[in-house]
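To close the chapter, one final illustration. This time we ask the reader to focus less on the individual chains and more on the assembly as a whole: which components sit near each other, and how the overall shape emerges from the parts.
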Amino acid sequence: MSDQSKVERFEDIAVPHLGAAYNLARWLVHNEHDAEDLVQESFLRAFKSFSGYYGGNLRAWLLTIVRNTCYTWLRQNKALRLADSIDDKLDEVGLDFTDPEVLFEQSMDSQMVRQALQELPVEFREVVVLREMEGFSYKEIANVVDLPLGTVMSRLARGRKRLHELLVRRMGKEAGIELSANA
Amino acid sequence: MSCQQTHELIHGYLDGELDLVKSIEIEKHIAGCPACTRSYEGMKGLQSALSDSALRFEPPASLERRLRTALRHESKSEASPMMFRWRWILAASSLVVAVLLIVAVAGIFSRPASEDLLAQEVVSSHVRSLMADHLTDVPSSDRHTVKPWFDGKLDFSPTVKDLSQQGFSLNGGRLDYIGNRPVAALVYQRRQHSINLFVWPSSEAISQKASERQGYNMIRWSNGGMTYWAVSDLNLAELQQFVQLLQEPNQSQLR
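The assembled structure is written out below.
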């Protein structure tokens, strides 16, 4: 395969996933310039090990490289803040969405959701982004974040629960401010 | 289905990851349980809030242009070092052939001699990698980055183990050339000491043997159709521990 056609083949199949790659990187490193650099670095890395044909799940493979590249960057920049403890045992997760109606009765503006998601520890944030924004299956997520399938489900469950708590807290604060303003 | 069982599976249900039988059981339970209905609706609300497209970060158009330019650049610069490498490989192999011929003519062409030659090559590669400041082609502590990097560069896929828990951190991988063939070099670190682990496929089974050369400790062995050489300035006991860890089947990596 000539160099030219290898580049074109790679572009044909990889560029459609640029949006997903950038979105993940941006959510992981919180900064647009670094996200752009890291996505470019990841795609170049993928290209180097690309031999002209990719038989597996290309999207999951690309995002695995993006995620690993971002983690390396976070570590190098001492910006990797992991959750204090992750208990991936499902039985302790429970449903227990305290006050689910809070989420119905108030319209959630995307700014608030964005801030809450940014506060979520990275191990939860990444699975939530992959599932809810990119529509990844559990199997694809398991590939990207290198976890067993069952752990993916409990990580998502915990992530959603924590996110819910963060949102309830934010809404409570906002409501509190309104009340004191009225008083 | 009980509330407890529903709790365990409801996220899988929400994500459409359950089989039909389990899905129907969950639906039945939710229909008859107000508490679970409330929680389920709460989660659906959260899910729809998260699927708001305003939350997605869209890449700037310049990123795609930048990437396409970088790929073309990469493709060109990839071609020339390869040419260089091939020339180097040709030169090296003719040198090796010449040396082998001399050795054969001298009538001492025997296994210990070729093994000796190999050991010399391994040590030289190790020293060169440290001197030329070219320890890794793919610097990464993640075996899922290092292993795929070799795809397409070698006609075999080396096993890359993560031994960071045991104090041998993975620094990355490199292509090298030993015994007349391209080989994988995996680079590990123990305190200040770099360890080069050379791997290549070989049909002959060799027993494990430790030796010392130019002040470097080395251990060679074969396993599963692969020949391994570990070389380092690390003391022999710790290098042996490293080799032993590599040989152990690792549960977490059998997934």
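Residues 91-95, 178-183 of chain A have pLDDT under 50 and may be disordered. Chain A touches chain B through 65 residues (CB under 8 Å). With these observations in hand, you are ready for the problems at the end of the chapter.
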